Q: What sequence folds into this?
């Protein structure tokens, strides 16, 4: 018998938007008494995502104790509801045994797992006029801070539920006997009205595919070890050497790293139509609509972990097909997202730095740097809450077609990340020189075995750079 289902909306929305989905679920055999629509405050400036998660725990427990909601139940979330649900689960159920876990299947519809470019717009005059009218021009500032691309909240949440922070707290909420997340996200930009103003490639009009995908990667790149090589590749041998020297250290997952979360890209659905299987997306065929419905039902009816793994493979094959470079334009092309956090060796934020992407032998191919920054990078967002944080959005399709294709024959087709930082003053500088000093690392290659940056994914990269006081900061002299 199907589990009960709880549906949770996103920012600036209410449960009313999900009545069509609830009616469709009833038509598919899910019982009316086992369907619950959650509501939470998202448009008041004093409410945070953590507040919503705490209130969610209270409401869920009240229903369970009254006998009206049985666990485990399945949870369907949309947009910001993804952040609320992950915060709720990681705050109250990390490390709990399977019998105490309230959720089994977590179906995420266009979740803003790693932010939305619209969050910053939501706090501008446009956002206040479009969304704030009737709310005293409140737009949910604290919620939007959490939703901002590369926000401190998202770094913290990723360390709560995805990555081990290295302090021995490696409990998890995801696993074969725990929560099974599924992600369905559109890649169709808005086609009508004012919403077209916020469209970007690789996005459903609100959430990027790479930001929705829960499969994320994290690493620390440390340039403070003088014995570590400055530039190294991602081959198994080099990566092992990097870990030993402390130069490049991939983060450890809290959950079994062999667990991959299913991701299905629905290329005819936008951020609004992804929640309603009863309607067609723009230019969506009847067969494509039926496929979307089947994906939803496959997730809700997934009977065991072996089938969960099979769904991940099937959805990945589907996404590769609809994003095939041979047929996908820029709107539907694969992208990837890189969140960068730069600190000095004392773990103090560094805010005045430059990230560049270079080809091998870049001194002879400086034009490729311009091509990458002008044509391949789609967006760079400096976090408004902490200038040491930046989010870089990369068009993966153009990485191959415009960047690698232009590298001369016989040269390595690799992408190097370079960082340089301005000296904080006359007495202290970064790296080994006052100006122009930099560190480099190979983050991608045409050879798939040598890649750290992955398709449709968000990456967290903490970069540690050396801080060097000049000789005059401390001197010794004879009396």
A:
């Amino acid at each position: 018998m199907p589990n009960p289902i709880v549906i949770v909306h996103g920012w600036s929305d209410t449960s009313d938007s999900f009545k069509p989905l609830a009616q469709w679920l009833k038509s598919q055999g899910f019982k009316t008494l086992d369907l619950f629509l959650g509501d939470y405050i998202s448009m008041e400036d004093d409410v945070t995502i953590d507040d919503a998660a705490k209130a969610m725990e209270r409401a869920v427990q009240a229903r369970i104790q009254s006998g009206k909601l049985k666990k485990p139940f399945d949870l369907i979330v949309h947009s910001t509801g993804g952040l609320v649900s992950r915060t709720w689960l990681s705050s109250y159920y990390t490390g709990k045994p399977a019998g105490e876990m309230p959720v089994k299947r977590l179906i995420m519809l266009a979740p803003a797992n790693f932010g939305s470019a619209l969050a910053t717009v939501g706090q501008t005059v446009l956002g206040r006029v479009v969304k704030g009218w009737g709310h005293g021009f409140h737009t949910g500032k604290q919620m939007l801070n959490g939703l901002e691309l590369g926000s401190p909240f998202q770094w913290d949440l990723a360390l709560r539920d995805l990555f081990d922070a290295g302090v021995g707290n490696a409990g998890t909420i995801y696993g074969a006997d725990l929560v099974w997340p599924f992600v369905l996200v559109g890649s169709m930009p808005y086609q009508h009205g004012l919403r077209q103003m916020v469209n970007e490639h690789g996005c459903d009009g609100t959430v990027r595919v790479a930001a929705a995908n829960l499969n994320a990667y994290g690493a620390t790149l440390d340039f403070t070890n003088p014995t570590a090589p400055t530039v190294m590749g991602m081959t198994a041998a080099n990566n092992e050497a990097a870990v030993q020297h402390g130069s490049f250290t991939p983060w450890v997952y809290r959950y079994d790293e062999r667990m991959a979360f299913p991701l299905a890209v629905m290329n005819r659905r936008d951020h609004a139509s992804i929640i309603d299987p009863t309607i067609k997306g723009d230019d969506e065929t009847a067969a494509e609509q039926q496929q979307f419905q089947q994906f939803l039902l496959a997730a809700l009816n997934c009977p065991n972990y072996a089938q969960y793994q099979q769904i991940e493979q099937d959805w990945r094959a589907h996404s590769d097909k609809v994003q095939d470079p041979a047929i996908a334009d820029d709107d539907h092309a694969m992208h990837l997202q890189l969140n960068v956090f730069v600190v000095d060796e004392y773990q103090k934020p560094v805010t005045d730095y430059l990230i560049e992407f270079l080809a091998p032998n870049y001194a002879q191919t400086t034009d490729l740097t311009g091509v990458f920054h002008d044509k391949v990078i789609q967006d760079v967002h400096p976090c408004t809450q902490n200038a040491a944080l930046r989010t870089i959005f990369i068009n993966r399709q153009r990485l191959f077609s415009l960047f690698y294709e232009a590298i001369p024959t016989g040269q390595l087709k690799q992408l190097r990340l370079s960082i340089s930082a301005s000296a904080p003053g006359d007495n202290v500088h970064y790296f080994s020189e006052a100006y122009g000093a930099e560190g480099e690392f190979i983050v991608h290659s045409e050879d798939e075995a040598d890649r750290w940056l992955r398709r449709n994914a968000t990456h967290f990269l903490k970069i540690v750079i050396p801080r060097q006081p000049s000789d005059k900061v401390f001197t010794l002299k004879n009396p």
The chain has two domains: 5-214+253-330, 219-250+334-471.
